Amino acid sequence: MEANNILLEMLYARIIILFSKKTGKSLEESLDRFYNSKVYELLKNDNGDYYCRGEQYISDDLVNEYKNK
């Protein structure tokens, strides 16, 4: 189980970095937006195979979530 958590945390980091690059926001603001997003809730709650879609796809979802707010 420990390996799964480490892999998920690495995925979170890559998503946050991509979100920051795509939006021009600081890493600190990107981190805050990620952990307060629906995308994070989907990943955290192990909702099916959402995490398998890859960081590009998930970061695009995160960008879209904040564009629509």
What does this structure look like?
- It contains 4 helices and no strands.
- By secondary structure, the chain is an all-alpha fold.
- Helix 1 (2-23) crosses helix 2 (27-35).
- It is globular and about 30 Å long.
- 16% of the residues are buried.
- The model has no long low-confidence stretch (mean pLDDT 91).
Topology:
Blueprint: H1 2-23, H2 27-35, H3 38-44, H4 55-67
Helix pairs in contact: 1-2, 1-4
Summarize this structure briefly.
The chain is an all-alpha fold and 69 residues long. It has helices at residues 2-23, 27-35, 38-44, 55-67. The protein has four helices and no strands.
Query: If helices are DSSP runs of H or I spanning 4 or more residues, what is the number of helices?
Result: 4
Question: Would you list the SSEs in sequence order as H and E?
Answer: HHHH
Mean pLDDT: 91
Q: Stretches where pLDDT falls below 50 for ≥5 residues?
A: none
Major sheet size, sense and barrel closure: none
Oligomeric state of shown chains: single chain
Query: What is the radius of gyration computed over CA atoms, rounded to a whole number of angstroms?
Result: 11 Å
Strand % is under 5%
The level of helicity is: over 70%
**Straight-line N-to-C gap:** 35 Å
Q: How many E-type strands?
A: 0
Q: What class do helices, strands and sheet pairing give?
A: mainly alpha
Coarse shape: globular
